[in-house]
Structure formats: structure tokens, C-alpha cells
């Protein structure tokens, strides 16, 4: 009987030792991180967080435009590249909402969690040497880093030419933005 008692005590002690030993599993334990590991029981400091694209988008960007020229009968070609400002100032209203000062006119848009920007269709005023003109702007783009983004804009409208009336135009612009 005494041996049975010692055997039970020994087995209980061994069972207690093995049941209290939990294997350490290293990983990111923050659910807000992109590499969160729900199986980890020890945080190893490896958590990765997605960039704040709204914050990265704000600031002054240099423009390198590549726009299609607008061809107007009698007048000739008008280069939109020459009409673009050398820089644009991007501000944020929070929640992924951006405001762009584009030659004195404000264009707004959004940036999503992947850095994809969408410019809401807006009408701006640009003087292309014929006096101020209303031009419809729309577009989209992507932020690659805090110093590099690409934007594709479409500019459209109509130019009023004496004797010819209003002549519609549309020009696509691919722009590289750098800081």
C-alpha cells in the first residue's frame, strides 16, 4: 500500500511538471500588426505595421508631367506639360481624405490602406494663354514611398474659338511625383 502511495505521488509530481511546461512560441502578438500570430505566446518584437498613407501623401511634391498636347484648329497645339505647376501641395483632412492645391484650385481625393489615390472629379481654372478656362480633372494614382508616387490625370473641357465655337478637348497626363 505504501508503494502504491509513493507511485501515485511520483506520477502526480511528474504530471504536474510536464503539464506546466508550455513550449515557447515566438511571434508578433499585436492584432493591429500585419504579421500578427495568434499562436504566439511570447512577443519577439517582430511586429510590422502598415504605413500611414495619408501621412506619407502630405507635403510638397515635385511634378514631372507627361501630358498629351491639346490640338486646337487654327490655334495649334497647347502643351499641358508647360501649364503644370512645378510642385503641388498635398494636405490631409484625416480619414484618408486629401486636398491638393493645383495652380490655385483645390482638388480633393482619397487614399486607401494600400496607398491607392483616387481624385474626385473636380473643375479647376487654368490660364493656358487664352484667358482662364474651366477644366474638368479626374484621376488616380499610387504612393510607393514617402518620396515617390505616380498619378494619372485626365483633363477635359472645351476651348471657345471665335467663328468655330466651343471645341472639346481631353488630355491624359501621367505624372511622377517626388519629394
Can you offer a commentary on this structure?
By secondary structure, the chain is mainly beta. The protein folds into 2 domains: 2-43, no CATH class; 53-178, Avidin-like (Lipocalin), CATH 2.40.128. The protein contains 2 helices and 12 strands.
Largest sheet descriptor: 8 strands, antiparallel, barrel
Nearest-integer average pLDDT: 85
The percent range for strand residues is over 45%
CATH class type of the largest domain: Mainly Beta
Number of spatially distinct domains:
2
Q: What's the alpha carbon Rg, rounded to whole Å?
A: 30 Å
Indicate the low-confidence ranges by residue numbers. none
The CATH superfamily of the largest domain is: Avidin-like
What CATH calls the topology of the largest domain is: Lipocalin
Distance between termini?
84 Å
Succession of helices and strands: HEEHEEEEEEEEEE
* Reported CATH architecture of the largest domain: Beta Barrel
Task: Give the strand line-up of the largest sheet.
Answer: 3-6-7-8-9-10-11-12
Question: Can you tag this structure with a few keywords?
Answer:
179 residues; mainly beta; Lipocalin; 2 domains; 8-stranded antiparallel β-barrel; 12 strands; 13% helix; 53% strand; rod-shaped
Amino acid at each position: 500500500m505504501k508503494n502504491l502511495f509513493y507511485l501515485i505521488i511520483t506520477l502526480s509530481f511528474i504530471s504536474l511538471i510536464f503539464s506546466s511546461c508550455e513550449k515557447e512560441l515566438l511571434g508578433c502578438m499585436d492584432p493591429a500588426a500585419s504579421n500578427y500570430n495568434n499562436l504566439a505566446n511570447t512577443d519577439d518584437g517582430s511586429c510590422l505595421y502598415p504605413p500611414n498613407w495619408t501621412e506619407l501623401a502630405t507635403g510638397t511634391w515635385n511634378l514631372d508631367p507627361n501630358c498629351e498636347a491639346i490640338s486646337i484648329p487654327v490655334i495649334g497645339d497647347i502643351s499641358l506639360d508647360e501649364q503644370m505647376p512645378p510642385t503641388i501641395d498635398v494636405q490631409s483632412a484625416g480619414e484618408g481624405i486629401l486636398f491638393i492645391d493645383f495652380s490655385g484650385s483645390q482638388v480633393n481625393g482619397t487614399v486607401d490602406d494600400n496607398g491607392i489615390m483616387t481624385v474626385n472629379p473636380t473643375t479647376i481654372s487654368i490660364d493656358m494663354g487664352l484667358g482662364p478656362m474651366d477644366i474638368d480633372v479626374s484621376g488616380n494614382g499610387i504612393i510607393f514611398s514617402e518620396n515617390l508616387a505616380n498619378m494619372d490625370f485626365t483633363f477635359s473641357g472645351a476651348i471657345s474659338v471665335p467663328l468655330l465655337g466651343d471645341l472639346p478637348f481631353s488630355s491624359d497626363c501621367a505624372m511622377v511625383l517626388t519629394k
